[in-house]
Amino acid sequence: MDDKIRATILGAAVSVLAVGHLIMEYYKLRGRISDHIPRQPYIDRAYLRDMYMNSLLCRGDIHCIDQIRMRPVAFYELCNILTRYNLVHQSKNMSIKEQVLLFVHCLGHNVRFRVLAGRFHRSSETCHLYFRIVLKAVLKLYKYVVRFLLNDMFLYTSTSSKSGRTRKPVDLQYDDKFSDHPVCLVGLF
């Protein structure tokens, strides 16, 4: 008799499990139960980042000047100069174009890294890191941009008089006002 009761209980348990499995499959097919936890909607941050960068650079010269304070040709030339002298390198996370655009956009609008993080879909730590990298690279450009004068060190000062404006040369080598300062001219690249 013991075997008969065990077999009955086992049969009842198997049938309850089978019916439960059928009910679960029925609701899965109707879409009421899913296999995974639903997440927030997927945002393609790389696509949005590229769209934002293209909106800054590819809308025309006037819009580009309003946004990053330079024409796209000058921006790409700055990227090429920083690349040519191996001052900025492309990383697996961020391209050179994005690094320089982040830097120039931050300087042009005086925005915080939190604002840049929202616009470029990056963390504020990443924005801060790459801003400092490009800042150090731009500061290293002084070797190629600043030219020290050895001869003909004259600075012209303009003075106004009743007869009009006149330009008077000031000798920088022998003037006491300029003896403490290094004399240099900054050339534009």
From TrEMBL:
Q: Membrane-crossing residues?
A: 6-24
Q: Which InterPro entries match?
A: DUF8040, HARBI1-like
Alphabetically ordered keywords of this record = Membrane, Transmembrane, Transmembrane helix
User: Which stretches make up the DUF8040 domain?
Assistant: 49-140
Q: Which PANTHER family match?
A: PROTEIN ALP1-LIKE, PTHR22930
Name of the protein in its database record: DUF8040 domain-containing protein
Organism per entry: Cephalotus follicularis
